[in-house]
Fold this protein.
Amino acid sequence: MSKVILYFRVVQVSLCSTWRQVRIVYSTCRMSDILAEAVKGAAAHPRPEDIQFAYGTAGFRDKSTILDPVLYRMGLLAALRSKAKKATVAVMITASHNPEPDNGVKLVDPMGEMLEGSWEKHATDLANAKDEDIGSALQRIIDAVDIDISLPSDVFVARDTRPSGPPLTQALLDGLKVMGSTFTDFGILTTPQLHYLVRCHNSKGAYGEPTEEGYYKKLAQAFLKLRKDGAKKKYEPVVIIDGANGVGALKTRKLQSHLHESLRITVCNDGSSGKLNEKCGADFVKVQQKPPAGLEILPGQRCVSFDGDADRVVFFYLNKDGVFNLLDGDKISTLIAGYLGELVSASGLQLNIGVVQTAYANGSSTRYLEDVMKVPVSCAKTGVKHLHHKALEFDVGVYFEANGHGTVLFSDQAEQKIKAASQDDSLESSKREAATRLTLMMDLINQTVGDAISDFLVVETILSTRDWAADDWNMQYRDLPSRLLKIKVKDRTAVQTTDAERCATAPAGLQEAINKLVAKYQQGRSFVRPSGTEDVVRVFAEADTQANADMLAHEVSVQVYQLAGGVGDQPQPPCAP
Ligand code: 16G
Ligand code: MG
């Protein structure tokens, strides 16, 4: 090893009660020693030879029983990332909406963004390095990024409620300790809370107080100030939350005391009896298009479903005839973009608002935004990081996946203009008031990442201001019937796409076949894409009726099966209703 760099190393760690803040005693040692220690440390976290891991759309995700070596290595990597960014980074241990036996890990960058794309390869390489090659794998990353490893590193850590969380956290901490990194283990948090904390910390409190309490206070204060008093005819401050038997339920309970009597929340699926994400949660409700187990609802009652780590949210209700109605990410973004648009015009500020969707967005929502609301719409690839990136192109960028994952980003310039207008005494009071409401909306919105709790409060604020019941919101536009299917193929990378996944470029002939099928159906639309989280190809179709959407999805599936190497039985046509 040619480089001889003296480097800090933790030799004693102790915990302090409130923050679980780690106190550290340092010693110094050489980089070569550290790399050797990293290899030695791998003995307690051996990697099975036969498994290949990949840092996918939302980090590593797998059966929790095989993730221990990945967590150890992500401890090593997080320390390097922190050194490279000269800032605190974060690591979240969660498998989101997946079943309880699964788990996962993802890295969070200093301002609460997802890990920078170029580092995903480093993560994959390190996770797949043989135990004895860990030192050289680390060295390759250090050289490729040109990291000054003599710099200190600091990492925030949190996990969801999965029973596999504590041992996996331990493996992660082992990696951090080997690298001599300081860390704060926050225990159980929602994913967006961790994103918030790391941003608050690195912005030195400018984004908020870097504590869990600080998170509740920031959201609750904005929410209470935005709540207009006065009698409501339609809006009722009563809501039922399906917490997916996960962390969102626990944290909503904590938030409740800060909201006083402004909103009556009943938390169901709070983990006291049911299993995480089992027949409940945002993913179940969106995919199954039906209410979760564990809720008793009356027609008209507004219900909300979070996913397992509370970064996704969907609303739903039964109409007066008992028919289930879903208010998904598309409905949420339309509601938010409409309201923010009104506030921006009322404030007199020149700010452009845009909405970012994915190909999964219901065609009716896109048409409504573009044709009725006259809001520009961009389409991004699936995965929060892609939407987030595109939303930065607007002064006010509203982004949501149909599955309920999204938020709003305000550019620095927009934020400054809004704050200045809210304090400008020379402005008409109506303009100033609109700017003040925008300032409060910025506080209520977790701009680091989609946040079920924050998004839920944003929606409640708008419904209350508009005096709308769920039905009024739902009537903005009518969803086109759609169907999502998945097809098993030999190699899902055989399917390649372009144009934000709306057009298949491989295998040859697939897109032409889809075009022909789509042309047969009124308001038909369909696309296929390889999943980023499962070994399948996904097929989406929408059309004028449910029967047509089902048939179009089926016909496209058959093409995928035939042209892209389907395995198992050929897809069967949908049964007649
Ligand atoms: C991940 C993504 C989610 C996306 C989903 C698509 C994040 C934090 N999560 O859960 O946004 O909708 O993957 O899954 O980016 P798929 O590729 O299997 O369809
Ligand atoms: Mg999630």
Notes: The CA atoms of residues 539 and 557 lie 6 Å apart. The chain has a mean pLDDT of 94. Residues 96-97, 307, 309, 311-312 surround magnesium ion (ligand 2) (CB under 6 Å).
